[in-house]
Amino acid sequence: MIDVIVAGGGPTGMMLASELRLHGVHALVLERDVEPPGVVRALGLHARSVEVMDQRGLLERFLAHGQQYPVGGFFAGISKPSPDWLDTAHAYVLGIPQPTTDRLLTEHATEVGAEIRRGCELVGLSQDDHGVTVELADGTRLRSRYLVGCDGGRSTVRKLLGVGFPGEPSRVETLLGEMEVAESPETVAAVVAEVRETQLRFGAGPLGDGVYRVVVPAEGVTEDRSVPPTLEEFRQRLRAFAGTDFGVHSPRWLSRFGDATRLAERYRVGRVLLAGDAAHIHPPTGGQGLNLGIQDAFNLGWKLAAEVNGWAPAGLLDTYHTERHPVAADVLDNTRAQMELLSTEPGPRSVRRLVSDLMDFEEVNRYLIEKITALGVRYDLGEGHELLGRRMRDIGLKRGRLYELMRGGRGLLLDQTGRLSVAGWDGRVDHVVDGSEELDVPAVLLRPDGHVAWAGDDQQELLTHLPKWFGANVT
Questions:
Q1: pTM, to two decimals
Q2: What is the location of CATH 3.40.30.120 in the chain?
Q3: Integer Cα distance of 163 and 348 in angstroms
Q4: Residue 307 burial class via C-beta count within 10 angstroms: exposed 0-12, middle 13-18, buried 19 and up
């Protein structure tokens, strides 16, 4: 029997499969498409996802293919400088096209031993107390202990489970594509600058060699956004907004997206779970979608591995829903708010000016950037130290960097007292006796995803928290 089947080979699925493999879990990724898609929907990684890549030793690969940008200007495109200080060692956005991110995560999943099968479409599933049976389009049946649907906004897994997907339907639609442009770069830039004074959902940015990434509001909302627009549709909409179609030709790919916001009612039904776009969809404002999915996988991976490996404490797997569902709900709220601020109507434009004025206050600017980058996420782990539930940024230690010590996917007790012990949890929690000028608490217990599960200096208090996250003492 397979340990975990992951339906969907996008960034969420590949990240999850890699996290499972860190713990020796047999992970099989089933991807419907034979070849990776070339559509560039996401353009970068925010600070929290950059931290994830660093913690798993992948950041250098991503930096080699990306470009670092300031984090200002990401909330509804309101241009403000980056906040003076953010709680991260990576206070930048890493510009990198999604196909490159997909490739790098797939390579990593392959390296750590995940099994990947392309051209395999899941069409049926059933589950019992012992596992899940999956049916593929070619009639093949597979059996696994768990199944995770990472199969996108139109998730087959979610539909087969009968999980509700309530929310708001699309009210506006946007065309997106890459194509060659006949007009000079100077002309394109001048026209785009003029149009964007009133229409912020319009743009044409150069990618090199005469190719542009073009975004323009569609005429209406189609019933099936899986059907790509035509080049003529782009030309018509460009002429409607800019008075010219820039002589666009030779498209690389064409796509469309709406502004629907929907959130799965449940992230888990028995032995089947949902992650990424299968669990939530929202407008792309702020560039949060791909990042949200990667962070779902990072939260779920170690918990699901603990279940498979038999040491998970009661209720651990259910914390995936209780922690990540509110995070997604907040993203849906802020993306919908941003869409309102992109409207051309007088009321929203007045609100946009007010929000822009408020963002001149450093605290407001930082608050909104922390929403976009997920640096503000704090899980509700009960009362305690102010660090409880927050994710630790990478800090310098006498023996190196914190994230370098967490690459094995285990928990970590960072102990500045030298008096504490994790005896009985040695295989699940690394004990590092070291000091840092950046840490003003005697010790912190970190989960495998880097979130603080406990902070203090009392051994008996520590012993009440270790079983909650790392199971029973095995001595």
A1: 0.94
A2: 396-470
A3: 34
A4: middle
User: pLDDT of 182-216, one tens digit each?
Assistant: 999 999 999 999 999 888 899 999 988 889 999 99
Region 171-187: mean pLDDT is 93
Q: Are 89 and 354 in contact (CB under 8 A)?
A: no
Q: Look up the CATH architecture of domain 396-470.
A: 3-Layer(aba) Sandwich (3.40)
- Determine contact, residues 111/117, Cβ cutoff 8 Å: no
Ramachandran quadrant class, 270 (left: phi over 0; alpha: psi -120 to 50; beta: rest): left
Q: What 8-state DSSP symbol labels residue 404? A: G
Q: How far apart are CA 201 and CA 218, in angstroms?
A: 10
Residue among 34, 5, 42 at smallest CA distance from 20: 5
Q: Helix (H, G, I), strand (E, B), or coil: what is residue 470?
A: helix
Cα diameter, the chain? 75
| Nearest-angstrom CA–CA distance, 204 and 248 | 11
Nearest C-alpha neighbor of 474 from the set 423, 412, 405: 423
Beta strand pairing call for 261-263 and 211-217: unpaired
Nearest residue to 321 (alpha-carbon basis) of 127, 86, 126, 163: 163
Q: Which residues of 424-445 are buried (b: 16+ CB within 10 A; e: fewer)?
A: bbeebbbbbeeeeeebeebbbb
Question: Under 8 Å CB-to-CB from 143, ≥6 apart: which residues?
Answer: 1, 2, 131, 132, 133, 134
The 3 state secondary structure assigned to 145-170 is EEEEECCCCCCHHHHHHCCCCCEECC
Nearest to 308 by CA among 116, 111, 23: 23
Q: What is the DSSP string of 173-191?
A: EEEEEEEE--S-HHHHHHH
Instruction: Take residue 465 and report the two structure tokens written for it.
Output: 């928290």
CATH 3.30.70.2450, the chain: domain bounds: 173-258
How does pLDDT run across 412-463, given as a tens digit for each residue? Answer: 999 999 999 999 999 899 999 998 989 999 999 999 999 999 999 999 999 9
Which phi-psi region, left, alpha or beta, contains residue 113 (left: φ > 0; alpha: ψ -120 to 50)? Answer: left
CATH superfamily to which 2-167+262-373 belongs: FAD/NAD(P)-binding domain (3.50.50.60)
- Domain over 173-258 is classified CATH 3.30.70.2450: yes
